Amino acid sequence: MTYDALGHGVLDYLPCRYGTSKLLFRGPRRHLDKTPYVAFVGGTETYGKFIEKPFPTLVEEQTGIAAANFGFPNAGIDVFAHDPFVTGAASDAEVSVIQVMGAANMTNRFYSVHPRRNDRFVAASKLLMTIFREVDFAEFNYNKHMLCHLIQISPERFDAVRMELQEAWVARMRLMLGQMRGKTILLWFAGHAPGTGACSADDHAIGHDPLFITRDMMDELREFATEVVEVTASKQAKAAGTDGMKFGELEEPAAREMLGPQAHAEAADAISQALGRLM
């Protein structure tokens, strides 16, 4: 999902900064040097776009432990790889909850992305231009648009791109988890369970967020996290659609792609239970 992360809407996200980070996070700002906290690192779902009380806030209410929300809309791993403050703050937390983010929004051998707006396509490598000679990559501003176009041209050639993204994602996630010194929870939060990562030429050719992440990839990371929590939104949560979400008229298409308050409540319950086992 791609949209302007900082667009005006009906919710006040209380944007704030921490330390030396250049990123604008969701508030309220927590005093990390004065109180124990749980760090939440992730993308749009962790940030809680259109959600009045996203799962980090609900976990704080359930456990009584301050939640530092380091979610960033449309983030891939690269956002945090370029921001050592987040890794340091996560290491100092009682527990860090790291959301599984898709493999499309990160720089790799085939293309580069914006260092902060990871959903933004910057440039194709010579290797990718050689594999897809017929494509004018200057036409693309977003990774997802570019990837959807490539698979429609040739699912067979696209397999090389998918495999590169998956291998790079596992390596980078291992590195990020390894840099966090404290206890960590790796969180899968989506409308579906981890699958096979297979691609096809249908309307959802490249799959659903988090893109390209498979069960095998999740299993590879288990030894690098203290605990793995998988939350697949229930049928009731998905059927609720945008009920309870807060957005402006022009934001409705983006809101429809996202998980709503009921799904966030399900995630919060699962995370709170895991925290009870770890703290």
Write the layout of secondary structure elements.
Elements (H helix, E strand, L loop, with lengths): L36 E6 L1 H4 L7 H9 L2 E6 L5 H5 L2 H8 L3 E5 L11 E3 L7 E4 L1 H6 L11 H11 L1 H25 L3 E8 L24 H7 L5 E6 L2 H5 L12 H5 L4 H18 L1
Parallel strand pairs: 1-2, 1-3, 3-6, 6-7
Antiparallel strand pairs: 4-5
Protein architecture, described:
This protein is of the alpha/beta class. Strand 4 and strand 5 form a beta hairpin. It has one domain: SGNH hydrolase (Rossmann fold), CATH 3.40.50.1110. The N terminus is likely disordered. The chain is built from eleven helices and seven strands. Helix 2 packs across helix 11, helix 6 packs antiparallel against helix 7 and helix 7 runs parallel beside helix 8. The strands form two sheets. A five-stranded parallel sheet has the order 2-1-3-6-7, sandwiched between helices.
Uncertain stretches of 5 or more adjacent residues? 1-8
Total strands: the figure is: 7
Query: DSSP strand (E) fraction?
Result: 5-15%
Helical run tally? 11
The chain-level mean pLDDT equals 93
What attributes does this structure have?
279 residues, alpha/beta, Rossmann fold, five-stranded parallel beta sheet, 37% helix, disordered N terminus
